[in-house]
Each structure stands twice: as C-alpha cells, then as structure tokens.
Amino acid sequence: MITLSMRPCGDFRTSYKADNQIFETKTIRWLTMASIGLLCFAPMVLDAYFLTLFIQISYLGIAALGLNILVGFTGQISLGHGAFFGFGAFASAWLNNSFGIPVWLAIPLAGWLTMVVGMLFGSPAARIKGLYLAIATLAAQFIIEDFFARAEWFSGGAYGAAAEPFTLFGFAFDSDESFFYVALFALVFMTLWATNLMRSRDGRAFVAVRDHYLSAEIMGISLNWYRLLSFGVSSFFAGIGGALYGHYLGFVSAEGFTLMMSVQFLAMIIIGGLGSVKGAILGTIFIVLLPEVLESTVALMAETGLVSHGSLTEGMAYLKEMAIGLVIILFLIFEPQGLAHRWKQIKAYWKFYPFAY
Amino acid sequence: MSSNILLDVSKVTLTFGGVKALTDVSFSVNKGEVFSIIGPNGAGKTSMLNCISGRYQPNSGSVRFKDQEITRLKPDKRSVLGLGRTFQNLALFGHMSVLDNIMVGRHHLLKNNFATGPLYWFSGTQNEEIKHRAAVEEIIDFLEISHIRKKQAGTLSYGLRKRVELARAIALKPDLILLDEPMAGMNQEEKEDMARFILDLNEEWGMTVVMIEHDMGVVMGISNRVMVLDFGCKIAEGLPEEIMANDHVRKAYLGEEDEMLEQLEASL
C-alpha cells in the first residue's frame, strides 16, 4: 500500500479542519465536482442504454459499498448480501404499498429496516469467524430467499410486488432520463455517507477490529457490538441499493436475489479493492461494464465476419460467466489489492516520474 | 490508606489446565507510583498484566481499580474507567495511519457514532474530531513522532512502533497505564528516550505506571517500587535497593540453588 501523501510541494495545511478534508488536493476536489456536474447533463446527450448502465452501477455500487464496509473494513465475511439487497427492494415496495409512505421516505426507511434484519442475521458474527461465519451468512441468504417466496403479505409471494416510481413534489421519476438524477444523487450521497463514516469514530473502530482485535478491545471498542454493527451498516447500504433497484424497475420479483448475486457483490469489492470506498465503486463499474464490453466486442467481430456469427452469440452467456471468473482469478493473482490500489500506483508513477519512489 | 491505593490485586490465581500461571499473587499500586514487575521468562508477568487489563480472568482472587471490583469486567469497559496498556509484541493497527491509530485511543471519549458520524458537517462530528485531534497532536508532540503522523503504522521501524503504541495508550487518558516491556528490543538511545517519556508521563501527565521490564538498569533507575515474580508466585516486593540486595531474587535470576525457590517449584 502506498502511504506517501500525494500532496504537491508547498500545499501546507494550517488547520486540522483543512487537514481532515476528504479530497487530498484542491484539483482533485474540483475535478470530482466537475465530473459530477458534467454527469448531470448526461441524460440530454446519452441514450437510454448508457443511462441504464449508469443507474445499474449506482444501485449496485451502493450495495457494494456496504459490503466493503463489512468485508474490507471490518474483516468479516458475508454470503448473504444479495438477500439483503432483495429485502431492501421488497421492504421499500411494501412500505409504500401497504402504508402509503411516499417513496422518497420509504427508501431510507427500507434501509433502516434492512439494517435491523442484517443485525439479526449477523448476530452469529459476534461468536464465529471466517469460514464458519461464511456458512452462517449463507444460511441467512437461503432463509431470506425462502421468506420472499412464502411471505405473501410482504413480497407478494410468487407474483412479486409492484413498486411505484419515485415521486417528488408531484413529479414522477419514471423514465431512464429522470431516474438517472435520483440514482446520481443517491450514489453521491451514499459515497459521502461511507467516506464520512470511515473518518469518524465508528469507522476507525471497524478497521481497528479488523487489524488487531485484541488491542481494539483494550482501546475500549466492544468487539461484539462492532462486529454486529458492521453487519447492520452493510445491510443498510444493501437495503438502500435494493430499494432504488425496486423503484427503478417498478416491479420486484423474488428470483433475482440469489447466492449468485451475493457472490457478484463479493467479486465487485475484490476487484475494486477491499477496504476502499473508491474501490467498491470502481469494482462495480468494472463488473457491470465487463459483460457489456464483451458483448459489443463480439458483435463487432461478428460484423467484420472474422468469426462465424452463430456460434459466438450462442456461447455468449457462457462466455460472460467465464470472463467474470477469469477476471477474478487474474485479479487475485496480479492485483490482490484491487483497482483502487492500481489507481494509486498510477498516480504515484506520474507524480514521481522518472523516479520509482 | 485505601484512598491512596489505585490498583489492588489480591490473591489472584490463574491456571491454564494443569499449569499454574499465577498463584495467590497480591500487591497494590499507589497513586502516582512507577511500579515495576520483574522476573525470569515465564514467571507470569504478562499473565498478571492480562488479568489487570481483562484479557484473562483469574480463577480466583480479585482485582480492584479505584475501589471498584473489575475482576470480571470486559476489557473494553475498563478503558472507560481509566486503564490503558501497551503490548509486549507490537499490536498496532497496521493498515491505519499513525494519526488514526492514536485517534482510536480516543474512542471512549468521542461521542459521534455510526448514525451521526456520516452526517459529518451537520452533526458536530467535525468539531468533535478537530477537538480530539488537538489533544492527539499534544501527545504526538510529547513523544516526538510528528514527522510520521501520516505514515502507515505497519511500515514503521520497531522503536517507532513502540512509541506509537505508547501514544495510543496515552490517548485513552488513563489514570493507570500498563506497559508490557516498553524497551524490549531497543537500542541504548531509544531506551533512554523511552525512560524519559515514562518519567514525564508519571510526573507531568500524572499517570500511575505499572511496567514489566527486563532492563534492570532502567527498572532500578525509574521505579518507586518493584515486585518480583517467579514460577507465578511473588517472591519479593519493595524498594529497588531492597530488591537488588535480595538473595532470593538474585538466585532466581542467576538460576542458583535456593531453598525457597525449590519449595516453590515443588509446590506446583
């Protein structure tokens, strides 16, 4: 891990407030803000395909952020994240349909509700670790999936649940163009939420529990509580992501929230970089775009006539799965610290060129 | 007399299966003292410290801190009462910066939590963090580690890591600080620095110090009182001069024949 500060010469901080800032330099801050500003114009330029991809990245990214808090920062493991994501989607729809709570309020409420459920299923974490915990969370995955199928009052059972579109001041965000803004806002908001959490008391406690639990306990950190809380916080993010997903599609069905989804979330944070807020987002972008890029490459190849059209498109589904698997293996071997680390190294390279350090 | 006693350990016995790590050890530490625990390897010094800090729970006996029974209290509750410690083997949070490591020490003094922390600018978290940062900087200044405050703790040299660990323990604002071999593996210069820090801690910061140390020069030089353990039993306690003159202690260290020690060993 590169620990050197990337701050340029002469950029001195004279107050603790300035030293605690999120962005390392003014340039980075302006660039980030400018790119968010530019994104606001995206719906006017880009077509629905790209907007859909961005919306996908944002709701999956929010959930991946949560999983990274649990796995990357606290050092726990969960194979039930997909189920929590689904719980958020159903909970928000349920709150809206059954109690008439407006969607903008139902989404955060669904987050809190998922947090409670997450802490319930995360309670074994206080006692067990590693592989055993993985199996315990696997149980959570199956129990919650089964709950979706049976609890008709909650999820509509086999029929699924309808989710109203997001409305604010009478305006319905029901198209890709309009929901894009909701997704963008949610992504920025939750990223800030995670960043701020990690630079305040409980975020540091999470990392302390991961790095050295014995001395964390001596520092006054209750291990049981923080292991449990970490499950809660990660489920909160999953719930928010899921709720957004539900209200975007307009319909939630129980089939999607399988173990495969949980594993996919794990893949995102491993590829992006464990223990990095930026990494979770980068990893999500990667996993969402990878099959798309593959598909368009194949389409391109088919057009040029280099390969026969039929066989490749038929094998596409398998190719996608295999590519994701291959990428995870390659990342584990060549860049176990993920895209976030790679990004840092690239920055260091530019800064120190022509020197290595 | 009782008002002056900060830590009172009475008749603590700790066993691991058939091994008696500590047998009926009693001692008390007065406010404002530097109290050292010495003894050969495996004598039970660290076990004693673990009983005080809560990692082990003694099989019998009691530990009282500030006139409060803490024998069965969880470790994380003890830091709130004013108990801090460092470890013999480095126990820093390796992936955090030095600054964050020390900020973790402020954990029980900070109020912000998982719900208010994320609302950084609106919940007063920012001001609170800055306030505690100032306190942490004071400790950083005192231990002369300001040049490494942004470095990752895991990348530091041994001597510096020990110092950061001390800083983290000080950040707890403890009344009693337990130091487990603060000078192990250090060179002469680092040892001298560390001895000075411990004395300053005691005199200027008003902390009572309980320390395990093998360097007899340092122990005899800076402690007010010394306790000697061997085979998990207390074999002597007193002023440094008394300990140095004590026959049993000398023999325990040199491994010579000694009737009392033989009886001790036989009784286990």
The biggest chain-chain interface is: A-B, 38 and 49 residues
First-last Cα distance of chain A: 13 Å
How much of the sequence of chain B is in beta strands?
A: 15-25%
**Which outline of chain A best applies?**
globular
Number of strands of chain B: 10
Major β-sheet profile of chain A: 2 strands, antiparallel
Describe, in plain words, how this protein is organized in 3D.
Chain B: One of its GO terms (molecular function) is ATP hydrolysis activity. Chain B: One of its GO terms (cellular component) is plasma membrane. Chain B: Residues 7-256 form the ABC transporter domain. Chain B: This is Lipopolysaccharide export system ATP-binding protein LptB. The complex is a heterodimer of chains A (357) and B (268). Chain A is mostly helical and 357 residues long. Chain A has a domain at 35-276. Chain A has helices spanning 16-19, 26-39, 42-45, 48-73, 81-99, 103-122, 130-150, 152-155, 176-198, 201-211, 213-218, 223-249, 259-272, 277-304, 309-334, 338-352, and strands spanning 161-162, 166-168, 171-173, 251-252. In chain A, the strands form two sheets. A two-stranded antiparallel sheet of chain A has the order 1-4. Chain A has a two-stranded antiparallel ribbon with strand order 2-3. In chain A, a hairpin with a 2-residue loop joins strand 2 (166-168) and strand 3 (171-173). In chain A, helix 4 (48-73) crosses helix 14, helix 5 packs across helix 6 (103-122) and helix 14 (277-304) packs across helix 16 (338-352). The two termini of chain A are 13 Å apart. Chain B is an alpha/beta fold and 268 residues long. In chain B, the strands form two sheets. Chain B has a six-stranded mixed beta sheet with strand order 6-7-8-3-9-10, sandwiched between helices. The model of chain B has no long low-confidence stretch (mean pLDDT 90).
